Amino acid sequence: MADFKRRVQSDNRHLENLTSARFIHVDGSDTTPITVHTGECRLLKLVLNTNGATIKLRTGTRVIANVAADAPETTLIYGLYCENGLIVECGGSVDATVIYEP
Count of domains in the chain? Predict the structure, then answer.
């Protein structure tokens, strides 16, 4: 019989300390830098739904990535630690989702 007083049952013990990822949708309507998260976080993915402008990802003043305006619509997997927050800058009309973990 299962012990329901425990947090995790059976062989799923490796999942007990996971946190949920969060996301922010950017559409390029505001070309000023968007602060996704302040403080330490992890950039997991960038999903390019419709590309048409450049996207710059940075932590503090350090640039993580520059995505070109002619990059194909795809999911870019990063898994990078950002020690000074996560900031997104869109150069124009673009539709993207930034997935991060605080």
Answer: 1
Biggest distance spanned by C-alpha atoms of the chain: 58
User: 100 with 45: CB under 8 angstroms?
Assistant: no
Query: Containing domain of residue 42, as a range?
Result: 22-101
CATH code of the domain containing 69: 2.60.120.340
Structural domain contains residue 17: no
Alpha-carbon distances of 20 from 15, 65, 87, 101, rounded to whole Å = 11, 23, 20, 7
Length of the chain measured in residues: 102
Whether this prediction's pTM lies above 0.85 is answered by no
- With 90 as the cut, is the pLDDT of residue 86 above it? yes
- At 11 the three-state DSSP class reads coil
